[in-house]
Design a protein that fits this description.
Radius of gyration: 29 Å
Strand order of the largest sheet: 6-5-7-8-10-9-13-16
CATH class of the largest domain: Alpha Beta
Structural class: alpha/beta
Oligomer: single chain
Distance between the termini: 52 Å
Number of strands: 16
CATH superfamily of the largest domain: Vaccinia Virus protein VP39
Number of domains: 3
Length: 570
């Protein structure tokens, strides 16, 4: 484990323990807003201070290409020069040009920490009418900071949640502020060694970690905004969206977008180019029906410094499409499985149902066709769905699936292991679809012509049990699945592997009545040949069984003895 990862793991534990103390007062659905709100304030303040330090150095550095330089000779005294610099530091344009959130003085973390230590009722400042503004409560102090940030940053209008409604005691909120203050998110150190992590890296990681922990704490309800990290990473690694328009019509807290940002950074390091420049080649579009989750996603993007378009408001993707004209290069989504109450009369005859009207009692093929409708002619998409979508023939689902296959839209099917999700035990799969198998780039290389072919991958035996109820993928599992898909796409190093992967034709799928369950195509794994002679094997197994019978008799006597000592007989 790297020193950076050790630092992040210990930070996660420390901050979560502090936040978890609120559970005695509030349930997870409520205290997540308080904790995530403070994480947001801490991040924007740290990022603001980082930019201030950069500007301070630029103002005082004399070089031919430095347009920010403020010559000392232009001022009559050191005091006047320092005053000019401080005045320049408060100009909002310097922060906007670097995509840094402008933080007003009363919203900066240092001010919050110092003010939270004052007695309730102290006069803090005078408003524009000359009236004293007093400290009413610590939650009021935090709400005021959030309000001021919203007013100065139109992109955040209506995004930041008030925390006063949760009526948290002053001392508990002050304790959280002090805990978050103990760690420098902009100058990270571990055992005296300075780390290369920036505040965006650390706070983005912490925010994602907390979302996962809250999802676990909330159980089924938490799954509305959280897709397990390994599944998100797998889809991003297989789809590789590194430039163009990216869309998630059921975005939850924006996990696909934040994971994709990490992919872009890793790819930039590998190719030795600037990640910030590559980020500018990405446009993010999303939609979410739940108003609270919509806000969480926006905060997640701001924390990562990502520009985004999540529509003017939260809204039902089917009935209130916030991006009606979008044609995305990449679409990724994990919508709720098997939604029954999604249909409305307005959807009858909708232009999105190109491959057939989806059943009114199940939204699975509604989501799929909505995504295909918004996919560019050379785009690719990945969709998590319940396993039933691969084989169901009820209410037109089989006919829709058959048409998708016959029109050569299905590129890859991945069967996932069970117990991957916190909110459902329904077995799931990933559909990878594209409108053009003849062309397309994988990063900067041309893919081979895959017309008439579909890759089937059975990943049900991969992964490990991370605890008693949840399964997860290892990094090696993700690499294996991504490599298999890319090798097949590029025609470089791919081979069918019994029990794991198989490249099928449309004719093959027709033989299976257009059922797309990978197990039907990959077959059983090859078994190692048993070279042990039959007589030797039987002798060995008989002796082993005899030993087990002896041990069984010994344990039975021991149990009877212990029960007898307690006054019981078996």
């Amino acid at each position: 484990m790297s020193i950076e990862q050790k630092f992040l793991n210990e930070l996660d534990t420390k901050l979560w323990k502090a936040a978890d103390k609120l559970r005695s007062s509030l349930d997870a659905a409520n205290y997540k807003h308080i904790v995530l709100g403070l994480i947001f304030l801490k991040y924007v303040s740290d990022a603001f201070e980082e930019r201030q330090e950069e500007l301070l150095e630029l103002f005082k550095t004399n070089s031919d290409d430095n347009i920010y330089y403020l010559p000392r000779d232009d001022y009559d005294s050191d005091a006047e020069y320092e005053e000019a610099i401080q005045s320049e530091l408060e100009l909002i344009e310097y922060y906007q040009e670097a995509n840094v959130i402008w933080v007003p003085k009363h919203a900066r973390w240092t001010y919050l920490k110092e003010t939270a230590a004052l007695p309730i009722g102290d006069v803090l400042w005078q408003d524009n009418k000359g009236q004293d503004v007093k400290l009413r409560s610590i939650s009021w102090l935090v709400d005021n900071a959030l309000d001021e940030i919203e007013k100065e940053n139109p992109k955040l209008k209506g995004i930041l949640n008030s925390i006063s409604q949760y009526q948290l005691e002053n001392d508990k909120l002050t304790g959280l502020i002090n805990t978050f203050s103990d760690t420098s998110f902009s100058k990270a150190e571990y055992n005296g060694k300075r780390l290369s992590l920036h505040s965006k890296d650390i706070l983005g990681h912490v925010y994602e970690y907390f979302l996962g922990q809250f999802a676990l704490a909330e159980g089924k309800q938490g799954g509305q905004y959280w897709t397990p990290k390994s599944i998100v990473t797998l889809i991003v690694e297989m789809l590789e969206p590194y430039k163009g328009r990216i869309y998630d019509p059921a975005m939850g807290s924006g996990g696909f977008f934040s994971s994709n940002d990490k992919f872009i950074e890793a790819h930039a390091r590998e190719k030795h180019y600037n990640a910030a420049d590559q980020r500018k080649k990405i446009s993010i579009y999303g939609q979410e029906a739940n108003p609270t989750t919509w806000k969480l996603a926006a905060m997640n993007m701001v924390i990562r410094g990502l520009d985004f378009n999540f529509g003017k408001k939260n809204g039902d993707t089917f009935l209130d499409d916030q991006h009606p004209d979008l044609r995305a290069d990449y679409v990724m989504a994990n919508p709720p499985f098997n939604i029954k109450d999604w249909w409305h009369g307005k959807l009858e005859g909708d232009a999105r149902w190109k491959y057939g009207t989806p059943p009114q009692g199940n939204a699975n093929f509604g989501w799929m066709q909505h995504m295909l409708y918004h996919l560019a002619p050379t785009g690719s998409m990945a969709l998590l769905l319940a396993n039933g979508s691969m084989s169901s023939n009820t209410n037109n689902e089989g006919a829709i699936r058959q048409k998708l296959i016959e029109e050569d839209m299905v590129e890859c099917m991945v069967a996932l292991p069970g117990q991957l999700f916190t909110n459902t035990q329904i077995p799931a799969c990933i559909w990878f679809l594209t409108k053009d198998k003849k062309n397309g780039l994988r990063l900067d290389k041309e893919k081979r012509n895959r017309s008439g072919e579909t890759l089937f991958i059975d990943a049900r035996n991969l992964g490990f049990m991370k605890d008693r109820v949840l399964r997860d993928f290892t990094d090696d599992d993700i690499k294996k699945l991504a490599y298999t898909f890319h090798a097949w796409q590029m025609g470089e190093g791919y081979e069918d592997v019994a029990g794991f992967c198989y490249s099928a034709t449309i004719k093959d799928m027709k033989k299976h009545d257009f059922v797309l369950t990978p197990g039907r195509y990959v077959g059983a794994a090859d078994q190692e040949e048993d070279t042990e002679p039959f007589n030797e094997k039987m002798t060995r197994l008989t002796a082993q069984l005899k030993d087990q019978f002896v041990e069984s008799d010994r344990l039975e006597l021991e149990i009877k003895k212990n029960l007898g000592g307690l006054g019981y007989e078996l």
